[in-house]
Amino acid sequence: MRFSRHLAWIVGLALAAGPAVAGSVWVASQQGARATRIERPDGARVAEVGAAVAVAPSPAVVAGGPGGRLYLSHPDGRAITAIAADGASRHWPVPGQPFGLAADPDGRSLYVGDWSGNRVLRVSAETGAVEAEVAVGRDPAGLALGANGRLYVAEREGRSVGVVDTARMVRIAGIPVGEGPFALAYDPVRDRVYVANVRSNDLTVIDAGALKPVATVPVGASPYGVAISPDGRRVVVTNQHAGTVSIVDAEALTVTATVPVGRYPEGVAILGDRAYVANWFSDDVSVIDLATLKETGRIPVAEGPRTLVADPPARGEGGR
After folding, report:
1. CA angle centred on 296, ends 293 and 297, rounded to 5°
2. The pairing of beta strand 192-197 with beta strand 309-311
3. Of 29, 135, 147, 259, which residue is least crowded by CB atoms under 10 Å?
4. Tens place of pLDDT for every residue, the chain, 320 residues?
5. What are residue 85's DSSP bridge partners?
6. Cβ atoms within 10 Å of 177's Cβ, excluding its own
7. What is each CA distance from 92 to 117, 126, 212, 279, 286, in whole angstroms?
8. How far apart are CA 320 and CA 94, in angstroms?
9. How far apart are CA 3 and CA 304, in angstroms?
10. Which long-range contacts (CB under 8 A, 24 or more apart) does 66-71 make?
11. What is the pTM of this model?
C-alpha cells in the first residue's frame, strides 16, 4: 500500500490572535519533502516562518521530542528523518513501513509503528538503531504515550487499541473501540485516551487506569484527527468527509460545537487557545478560536496538508 494519498503527513500553520503564546507549529510538505517551522509571534503579525529543512520524500507522521527535536516517518521509503533543534537532519533506515511515532520524554527512545508488520519498534532516538519490538494488532496507526510507561496503539483493522508496557515491550491489553481506530490522544488529568474511529464516525473514551472503554461520543463523518486543549476541557476532532471539526466537552462527553472548515480536514494540533486544522483537499489550514469555538481564518499552504504537530505540545499531543 502506498501512503502518498491515503495516510497522514505533516503540514500546518500557526497564526497569532489574542494573547501571545510561546511555541510553534511544524509544517511538512509531502510533495515538497520539506519541514518548516511556523512561529506564533507577539502582536498583530500573522505568522513568522522559521527554518526550513529538506527531508526525504513522502513524510507521513511527525512526533516532537525533547529539546526541540522532530521525527518524521516515511512508510514508502522505509525510513525516519530526525531533525535536531539546530536544523541538522539525519535519515535512518527502519524495517517495515514506519508510520505512527511517539517520542519518550527522556529523549532516549522513539516508538515506531510498522504498518505492514503489525508491530511496534523501539529505536534509539539518537541513532535509529532498533532496540526491541512487540507484536500488536493489524495496521497500527496512531501512537500515544501515557502514564506508567504505557504506549497506546490504534490498531486500525483490529477495532482495538493495544496497550504496550514499554519497559518490557509486551502488549498487555487490547481494548475494544469503534470501527477503524486511527488517531488517539492521551489526557493525563483524567487518565483517559480519546480514540477517533474513522469508519464508525465516533470517538471512544477509554479509562486508562481500568483499561476499558467508558463512553462513545458520536461525531462527524470519518473522524481522522484528535487533540486535547491545554486545560483539558475540550477534545477537538476533525471529520474528514464532513468538512467539519467537532468540539467535545470532556466533562459532559457531548459535542458542544460543530465548526465548518476546509475540504477533507485530517490532522489537528493545538497551541495555546487555537486549534490548527490541516484541510487536505483545500490546501490550507483552518484556525479555530477555542474560546469562541469559531474558525477565525484560513492560511494557504503547500498542496495536500494532512497532519500537524505543535511544539510545545498541548496535553495529549506528541506522547508527552
Report:
1. 140
2. unpaired
3. 147
4. 444 433 332 233 222 233 345 578 786 666 777 777 767 655 444 455 566 677 889 888 888 888 889 999 999 999 999 988 888 889 999 999 999 999 999 999 999 999 999 999 999 999 999 999 999 999 999 999 999 999 999 999 999 999 999 999 999 999 999 999 999 999 998 999 999 999 999 999 999 999 999 999 999 999 999 999 988 899 999 999 999 999 999 999 999 999 999 999 988 989 888 888 888 898 877 889 999 999 988 877 777 777 788 876 665 554 43
5. none
6. 26
7. 18, 10, 36, 29, 33
8. 23
9. 13
10. 66/103, 66/105, 66/106, 66/107, 66/320, 67/107, 68/311, 69/103, 69/107, 69/125, 70/26, 70/35, 70/309, 70/311, 71/101, 71/103, 71/110, 71/125
11. 0.89
In angstroms, the CA 181 to CA 113 distance is 14
Q: How far is CA 151 from CA 30, 122, 146, 289, in A?
A: 27, 11, 6, 30
Give the amino acid at 171. Answer: R
Q: Which residue has the cell 483517559?
A: 192
Of 283, 187, 198, the closest CA to residue 227 belongs to 187
Write down the domain spans for the chain: 24-311
All cell numbers assigned to 75: 512508510
**Cell match 505540545: residue?**
313
Q: How far apart are CA 185 and CA 152, in angstroms?
A: 9
Whole-Å CA distances, 216 to 153, 159, 236, 253, 254 = 18, 14, 15, 8, 9
E strands, 56-107, in order: 62-64, 70-74, 79-83, 89-93, 98-103
Read off the DSSP letter of residue 43.
Answer: T
24-311 is a CATH 3.20.110.20 domain: no
Residue 89 exposed, middle or buried by CB count within 10 Å (0-12, 13-18, 19+): middle
